[in-house]
Specification:
The protein is mainly beta and 315 residues long. Helices cover 9% and strands 34% of the residues. It has a five-stranded mixed sheet, with no helix packed on it. Strands 1, 4, 7 and 8 form a four-stranded mixed sheet that branches.
Length: 315
């Protein structure tokens, strides 16, 4: 007798479980019948809309299928997605198919302004975003470098960091100018530069890396992508007329790639502007820069150079 009661009780539990399991399928589509994928379908008891029973996403054909195990009389199905207006319908709590028509909508995103940092560090490299320091009056890289904290540039174009002259001046990782980088700082268009990098512990001699600390920093110019591999020529000409006509002309040609670089300049004037400073070598390794011969020059007079210095050529 007891065995019969237990068997009947278990049969009743199985029957109730089978009745409580509901499989609901359907399709999400627009008014013209187009399916909508990646729509979220969430099922709630109609009498308790905050109690989530199950959820699913529509596939590429807009179809969905959910399984509910609950004894409520009806279910609330909510459909939501980025491309549609939210909608909800009430369906009986029994297996069946229910298509849902939705309305397409366009979501207008709020305007977002992304600003890059003016200065940021990566390990022992300090990066300066050139666009944050650049102004319309800047004519050369030196003009922008002078605005960057920790960096100073002399009239001759020598760059110092934290009060110490830099050791190397790289363009895209290549030391094109060696110690004569004043030609680069005084002539390269700053609009072509994306980032100025200060390499604080850079050791250019591979055999000494990790063995001897480097006290002098180095600088590397990172170019904008549209400038790499492009030949660029900038020329200016100025002149006057009269008994003693004045003229001031210049031209600079550049071509920069990671492993192939070219920089050529021409400058001439008879206005007294000193052009020799750009040819100075700032290299501390005098074994590479010693002159074969030298000439002792008389001391300069105690007046401004522009009153006695003339770059004149004679035929």
């Amino acid at each position: 007798m007891n065995h019969r009661i237990i068997i009947s009780y278990l049969s009743g539990i199985i029957a109730l479980s089978a009745i409580a399991e509901t499989v609901i399928s359907g399709k999400i589509k627009t008014a013209d019948g187009s399916p909508v994928d990646l729509v979220t379908i969430v099922a709630y008891p109609s009498n308790s809309p905050k109690n989530i029973l199950t959820s699913a996403f529509t596939d590429e054909n807009g179809c969905f299928e959910i399984t509910v195990n609950h004894g409520c009389d009806s279910l609330l199905l909510k459909a939501s997605g980025i491309e549609i207006a939210p909608i909800q319908i009430t369906v009986p709590n029994r297996s069946g198919s229910h298509d849902i028509k939705v309305e397409k909508r366009t979501v207008e995103l709020k305007e977002v302004v992304v600003k890059s940092k003016k200065v940021y560090s990566q390990g022992d490299t300090i990066n300066y975003n050139v666009a944050s320091f650049l102004s319309q009056t800047d004519q050369s890289v030196a003009d922008v470098l002078r605005k960057m904290p920790g960096i100073t540039v002399s009239d001759a174009g020598q760059v110092s960091y934290q009060g110490k002259p830099i050791k190397n001046f790289y363009i895209e990782g290549l030391d094109l100018m060696k110690g004569h980088y004043g030609i680069a700082t005084n002539n390269i268009d700053p609009n072509n530069i994306a980032t100025v990098q200060v390499l604080e512990n850079h050791q250019d001699i591979k055999a000494l890396k990790g063995l001897r600390p480097e006290e002098q920093a180095s600088i590397n110019l990172r170019l904008k992508e549209g400038v790499k591999g492009v030949f660029n020529l900038i020329a200016t000409a100025g002149g006057g007329y009269g008994d003693k006509g004045l003229w001031n002309n210049s031209a600079i040609a550049t071509y920069f790639r990671r492993n192939s670089q070219f920089l050529a300049t021409y400058k001439g004037n008879n206005t007294g502007e000193d052009l020799s400073q750009e040819l100075y070598s700032f290299d501390n390794d005098y074994s590479r820069t010693n002159n074969i011969s030298s000439i002792s020059m008389p001391s300069a007079p105690g007046i401004d150079k522009r009153f006695y210095y003339f770059n004149r050529s004679h035929n």
